[in-house]
Amino acid sequence: MHSNFLKYFDEVARQGSIRKAASILNVSSTTVNRKILDVESQLGTPLFDRTPEGVALTSVGTILLEHCRKTLYDFERAKIMMDDLRDMRTGHLQLSTIDSVAYGILPDALRQFSRKFPDISFSVTTAQPDVIMQSVAAGEIDVAISFLMDLHPDVRVVNEKSAPFGIIIRPDHPLAGRPNVRLVDVAGNRFVRTTDARGGNSYLDHRVANVANKLKTHVYSNNLFVAKEMILAGHGVGIYTKIGFLDEIRAGKLCFVPLLEDGLSDIRVATLVSASSGLGPVKHHICKVIGDLLTDLRLDS
């Protein structure tokens, strides 16, 4: 429907009078009335009951008014966002992510984002998924990328991607080239494993608590770079998502083999924001960049 009709219809409903609405809108009563009559004719039903005292919404008019006001609100909000986008010159984004994303797609995302917003600065921290979720819910973080687990009611998922765990091995490992494996297939290997920097169990340990303590671990580290170097040097097999090893896998230095294991094959990585803070132009753009990069990745094989 024409935007003029939406404005006319909304104002007539507010005033209960075509004449009063026309005066506020600075148009003639005839113009307002004709526009409403045209739409009533198209719909085949009246939107207002006309009385000597003015007009009152019919049941159909009440339904249409809800649509009308939502459309006007969304349009005004879109205009504000576009104005914000045009006026945006400086600002700061607080980002938090799991370690693997910091080594994977985040640098590319920031490079792409900075081409459009060169004067926006960043703070980037890495943390465990539970800490990230709480920080986003509390409004301490603008945008986060983390495993999608135990979603907090105050956190909104903007986009997500399947990112199952698998083994990370060198190309000369006997299991390289397998379409998938189970933990029992690799139980005899030495492992390179992640520890929580706080001294607790890692995300992997929580997902496979009944198996994790049986793995023969050669190297523990809370730093993905160290873990990666140990795997490259042949000191063990890693159990990670593919996202933190993309460069090495593309270069043929490492291989990823998906794990067919309950709790490890259904993992998803998501872009998260506070449900209460809204998604302005800057956050919307960084989330879109991250989402596009995730979409282009094949993380399950």
Automatic annotation (TrEMBL):
Molecular function via GO: DNA binding; DNA-binding transcription factor activity
Keyword RNA-binding: no
TM region positions: none
UniProt keyword annotations, A-Z: DNA-binding, Transcription, Transcription regulation
Pfam families: HTH_1 (PF00126), LysR_substrate (PF03466)
InterPro entries, alphabetized: HTH-type_LysR_regulators (IPR050950), LysR_HTH_N (IPR000847), LysR_subst-bd (IPR005119), WH-like_DNA-bd_sf (IPR036388), WH_DNA-bd_sf (IPR036390)
Positions of the HTH lysR-type domain: 1-58
Annotated GO CC locations: cytosol
CDD domains registered for this protein in UniProt: PBP2_LTTR_substrate
Family from the record: Belongs to the LysR transcriptional regulatory family.
The protein's name in its UniProt record: LysR family transcriptional regulator
